[in-house]
């Protein structure tokens, strides 16, 4: 019986660490907060994309903005150096479809260090004529 309670306790502890600890929900909030702040800052501005920001005194993450086809959210913002625990990218808005040519995507990837999931995402989003 003691072994059963010990195993249950260890399981709960592991879940707690995964959910709230390193790479968990709490750690993800800071990445999304940065992305949302940048999205709000640039939403109504005309920018040349892709626009790469940070890391710097203000931003912990390196973030890039790309054009979208959405008039309400004209840019999608992606954390380039962070990968979520579920092996997805951090992007705001989360369901954006990018407007980027394959030539632009390849050029961007050659000039910027990004995590593997961002590389795959950009290659899947690119079109010959954005």
Strand line-up of the largest beta sheet? 1-2-3-4
Rounded to an integer in angstroms, the radius of gyration calculated over CA atoms is: 18 Å
How many helices? The count is 4
Proportion of beta-strand residues: 15-25%
Describe the sheet with the most strands. Answer: 4 strands, antiparallel
What is the approximate shape? Answer: globular
Order of helices and strands: HHEEEEHH
SS-based class:
alpha+beta
Instruction: State the low-pLDDT regions, or none.
Output: 13-26
Distance between the termini: 63 Å
Helix content: 40-55%
Mean pLDDT equals 82
Number of domains as seen in the coordinates: 1
- Strand element count: 4
Main attributes of the structure:
130 residues; alpha+beta; 4-stranded antiparallel sheet; 4 helices; 44% helix; 16% strand
């Amino acid at each position: 019986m003691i072994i059963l309670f010990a195993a249950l306790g260890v399981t709960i502890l592991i879940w707690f660490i995964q959910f709230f600890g390193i790479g968990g929900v709490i750690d993800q909030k800071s990445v999304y907060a940065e992305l949302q702040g940048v999205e709000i800052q640039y939403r109504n501005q005309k920018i040349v994309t892709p626009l790469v920001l940070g890391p710097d005194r203000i931003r912990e993450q390196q973030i890039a903005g790309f054009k979208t086809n959405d008039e309400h959210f004209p840019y999608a913002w992606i954390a380039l150096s962070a990968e979520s625990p579920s092996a997805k990218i951090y992007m705001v808005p989360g369901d954006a479809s990018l407007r980027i040519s394959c030539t632009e995507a390849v050029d961007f990837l050659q000039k910027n260090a990004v995590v593997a999931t961002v590389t795959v995402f950009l290659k899947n989003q690119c079109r010959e004529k954005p």
